[in-house]
Amino acid sequence: MLGNTFGEHFRLTTFGESHGTSVGGVIDGCPAGLKIDFAMIDAELARRRGDGVEGTTERKESDQIEWQSGIMDGVTLGTPIAFLVRNGDTRSEDYDSLKEWQRAGHADYTYQKKYGIRDHRGGGRASARETVSRVIAGAIAKQLLANEGISIISETVVADLQSATSDNQTIGGKVRCNIYGVKPGIGEPVFNKLNARLAYAMMAIPSAVSFEMGAGLQATEMTGADYADRWNEVDVADFKSATTDELKQSSNQAITRTNHCGGVQGGISNGMPIEFTVGFHPVVTQIPITQCRNRAGEVQMIEIKGRHDRCHVSRVVVIVEAMAALTLIDFLTPNLSNH
Amino acid sequence: MLGNTFGEHFRLTTFGESHGTSVGGVIDGCPAGLKIDFAMIDAELARRRGDGVEGTTERKESDQIEWQSGIMDGVTLGTPIAFLVRNGDTRSEDYDSLKEWQRAGHADYTYQKKYGIRDHRGGGRASARETVSRVIAGAIAKQLLANEGISIISETVVADLQSATSDNQTIGGKVRCNIYGVKPGIGEPVFNKLNARLAYAMMAIPSAVSFEMGAGLQATEMTGADYADRWNEVDVADFKSATTDELKQSSNQAITRTNHCGGVQGGISNGMPIEFTVGFHPVVTQIPITQCRNRAGEVQMIEIKGRHDRCHVSRVVVIVEAMAALTLIDFLTPNLSNH
Amino acid sequence: MLGNTFGEHFRLTTFGESHGTSVGGVIDGCPAGLKIDFAMIDAELARRRGDGVEGTTERKESDQIEWQSGIMDGVTLGTPIAFLVRNGDTRSEDYDSLKEWQRAGHADYTYQKKYGIRDHRGGGRASARETVSRVIAGAIAKQLLANEGISIISETVVADLQSATSDNQTIGGKVRCNIYGVKPGIGEPVFNKLNARLAYAMMAIPSAVSFEMGAGLQATEMTGADYADRWNEVDVADFKSATTDELKQSSNQAITRTNHCGGVQGGISNGMPIEFTVGFHPVVTQIPITQCRNRAGEVQMIEIKGRHDRCHVSRVVVIVEAMAALTLIDFLTPNLSNH
Amino acid sequence: MLGNTFGEHFRLTTFGESHGTSVGGVIDGCPAGLKIDFAMIDAELARRRGDGVEGTTERKESDQIEWQSGIMDGVTLGTPIAFLVRNGDTRSEDYDSLKEWQRAGHADYTYQKKYGIRDHRGGGRASARETVSRVIAGAIAKQLLANEGISIISETVVADLQSATSDNQTIGGKVRCNIYGVKPGIGEPVFNKLNARLAYAMMAIPSAVSFEMGAGLQATEMTGADYADRWNEVDVADFKSATTDELKQSSNQAITRTNHCGGVQGGISNGMPIEFTVGFHPVVTQIPITQCRNRAGEVQMIEIKGRHDRCHVSRVVVIVEAMAALTLIDFLTPNLSNH
User: Fold this and answer.
1) How many helices (H) and strands (E) does chain D have?
2) Do B2 and A216 touch (CB under 8 A)?
3) pTM, two decimal places
């Protein structure tokens, strides 16, 4: 099984190490005829960079996208869309000390064990820098979804970022994601349930540690009588033409009175908002000194000069949305017209 | 995307409706030369039936497996292993009332919306009866894993089953799963992380609502300094020849002092035990009367005669293990010899 | 890469050894709501058996299909369709001599090398008996294609069957296949060209040795000026409502004046009939005595008691059509409605 | 089904239009630790350009590869290898006349029908320019195969290139390919037969019209007694350490006396050389004037200023080898060590 491709119908393959020439991706399966909103993609990248957010990493890429193929005069051709973003602001020498040393809590050791070789600079392929490609592809997916009346809205649920940032500690947190406008019937039974694919997508985000569908862990403590989402007596609204506010206020139009299941029953959407929560562990790098291990098993404290977030969860929000968009568009693409 | 196949290298395709002729599956990719332990498979099926467990469903299938192919003289041939289990003890007439009515909290509505048709008898394809096939395939996967020194041990973490069963309420709960003996280097970076594939597999179990890797939700509230799993100064033990007790006691041999990450870093195993927790919502069927909806949107209380568990979580344990086994063997199969 | 599954969207997985319990298959992805014509499937199986054709194998199965799932009241549910056909008329003892001996020209040696074990009875998994499953699935595919106005018509192009059968020799031959009613736009560029997928499907038929698209080998000897299919000045007809005769006579309606390309340009259908030819080598079993080899490399002439065709090409016609149908429906399924 | 990815274990995804920014690809699954021979890759690209060959296209790219990822200090990391080659020498204005006109015999019409939009410049995605990416990936595959003792040697079988080139006609031809050193047991039964995968790969080359395995069409006219490859009494040689000359002369070491089957039985290699022949139709572009059609169905003769080969078959040889290498390495990769 290969690791760098996501999706079957709208298929993103990403590439790139943190301090290599570039990071980028190829999208196969994007329908032809989409007029790309490039400014929206740049805005999504700015959300990922955390522009203006306190406590985020000091490394500042300009994230200039170099489009290679699949787009002519701003419109998709139906052929593969390849793009790359150069790794400009690297300070690879910061990582020289890591050539021989594997940081505690990182993927340094596992990559070395798996491949017998690793790019030690800035985390290499395991760096969250790779998520640039997901955000770009996710932004295109969002544009396609918007045309189908689907919107994805996420936000952090994090206790106290300020206290964490003040004492040089890192902290994690949770992201709640709501997807509006998904019609009934999306998702596949048994193994490729919509909730199972979402869990897969979310746990593939660096530092993700938990996934909860709908009521999540609370559901494990409810009785069946309390948990079961009872029917309303009115039919589900056609969400396509509604605004987001209208969508949020349409609960009296909803097919069920509660939404403990998070909009998915038997792996298939029921027309209610898709709701889930993803938890993230804190950044594990200890600055300025991290415990490290070499291949002989010796352990030592090493000074790390790289730059890292104190709380990265606010930056993760757009990645959660991107992965949600990629998951949904993968189910929907076969039914989209090519032009 | 199709829903009924799990895995790429060790690939299970399941079929069957709850009240159809049979449920069963085809395994493609099982290495040749495995001498099947049929008694162990039967014992796993007995765990799934909950033989002797209070509060489980009254429907009792004998679960006689009819092997069709891929095995000669009890040894696998490397060709597809097809099997089926007939649906003997069905009382399809119990479900006649559901032809026109869709139960609250079930997949009746979503299947109808997706396919325009559904088998209303006993949940049809959405019934947990389908997991028979997963348990059979998972048992074969466990036998292969055992030959590689890997064992999977799960248990329920459920508050108070007895109180629930006494007052005719249904309850859910959690299952904790530990996998011993996985060497470093298993899992693929970026999208097919071992933890992401596990999350996908677990959320594909009926009634699953949450997945936590390692410390899970607790990790979202820890500081990075507390969360980071620090190195031990001794190398990881070769788990292959150890007994389960030895494995559990080998923490002083472990490569890290704690295991908050649950044995996976950067999506790749680090040689520590793989640990995760799965939460399940309670059975939603309200006995004897469940709220239902017809295609016109009318809502009514209907008497349901089918049989259902008051707490199904103890039966789910073996399914959690089966899906974990299928996930792991899918990563390992390319490296197994065919004979 | 696993061998026993064909297709991505309409996906057939087959199982079964020639002298095992049964041969059969699972179809995932068949749209819901198809009313199955069971008599037509039986008729296709009769074509495969060569009922009434001189020179075909004497083994006569009744080929009773036992449907397991995915169909209720004769209508597809959208869930996996599993079926099996028992291997009734086996004379496994005929093959006892082959336990230790590998026949020249067969797959006995290669299976043994690949798996370290093989089912020696009647060719095991390598037997053409396996194509029963393809014919059943192909018949369902044909029924779906017929609803889209697509028909597949094949015939043998074989020099002199009678002379071959009279002197106990086996001979091969060619099958020409024409597919009418495929609209422009079917097929994927670059690797999954419609012609490439057809070549793959055809060469996966036992004893296939050649594949020619359109003019085939003749095209390699033409000049570009002669080969290029020039435009007609009228637009392509909508083939959906036409009869087969009308389709054949509609050349004056065709979009091109000639059809050297066989209806595919750049890997994508152009609305002309899809035309290709498949060649088959003769049955290699020498009756009554075949040269064999054991694992030590010793060679000996062994008497084989199994039954084999003198010319199998007339029986292959329906398999060519089945594989063509499976190839086409795989491209078309995403665009078919589920009900 | 998506079109732009080839392979499951060693997986190439290509991108790029002929006159877009670049053509390129991403390889996922290349084992770590391969020291890349960059000069050999350049030499393969020179073969594709037909440097020094009379009658080939006048467009001369320098084909400078810009490596993006997956390689550090010339050694593969096991992570995706992304590369691109800029489209320098484009004269897009040559193709302005084709914006509204679709050339006879080309993919202009089918792309327009499929996508509702097309890049009309130089054939866009359908241009043979795309094969640059296949040759680069194929060269890496060859380097891996060479380490396993496998070599691929092809040559044209073309009647009279000179006569064709003298009178401004285009001609096609055939390429014969021989693969030495493949051990027994490679290939999968039933659908993913080695010969079926090779047919798929070859027919996915632009202008391919026929595929013959081993004796090919001749086999359709032989008797079974003549066709069957009889055993030699000596065991198959270990080809790994032999030179190509030794390989060719090792027929007395071969496991069979003849090789009509082309080294594959039951879809699985038998240790004999893999042999097949691919036919190609002539370049269809008529210079200087080609018949064209617009979307209204009007037909007209249009002057085409683009540059095209008179005989492209000699340039195709390296593409045949590349696709053969990609096919083989896809089967072998799971068994290769990562370092």
Assistant:
1) 8, 16
2) no
3) 0.94
